[in-house]
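Q: I'm teaching a short session on how sequence maps to structure, and I want students to see two examples side by side rather than one. Could you give me a first protein with its sequence written out and its structure tokens following it? Keep the formatting plain so it prints cleanly on a handout.
A: Of course. Example one:
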Amino acid sequence: MNITKNSVILFLLVILTNSLSNSDVLGSPVMETSKNDVCFIPCTTRYGEYECWCDCTHKRYHDGGCVNGRCCCKK
């Protein structure tokens, strides 16, 4: 009984520790460049120039496009 109780406590402790230290969270770092005001979402084959431009204009930027694999918006 005591071994089972210790095993359950250890298991729950491992699960709790794992959930608190989630390394899979992407903060999506924001880069600022001299030509662009802000760069955020990575550009892919499914998220290209047009999607980037749409997101930038939706966020009230003047223009946007993929630069070095990232979606960059201009004021």
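Q: Perfect. Now a second example for contrast.
A: Example two:
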Amino acid sequence: MSPILHFYVRPSGHEGAASGHTRRKLQGKLPELQGVETELCYNVNWTAEVLPSAEEMKKLMWLFGCPLLPGDVAQESWLLLSSSDLLLEVGPRLNFSTPSSTNIVSVCHAAGLEAVDRVETTRRYRLSVWP
């Protein structure tokens, strides 16, 4: 079975406004909600027999990052959870390959990353609530 590699993208400045909007919408239904943080996660299906080399990892991190924000991609989540937080991950069904996956895979292949055969993007939400 092919491993799924996860690349987490740190929220940028414009996502703060989106998180505020999401928080205001959710507080009507969940009054104990204190805050919302988000991040993107690129879920990469890696088909090679071995895990990516350091050079391949460098390419993947570069492809999923923003050139104006160096260091914004990590293999560990940026969202630090406490015991009262709720983590939600929203994305496509795993049995359906999206058009964006097809495009991202084409870019990966052009960069010499032939072992990538699917990349699905999900948005992760950390909901902070009163304990």
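Q: What should students look for in example two?
A: Point them to this: The chain has three helices and five strands. Also worth mentioning: The mean pLDDT is 88.
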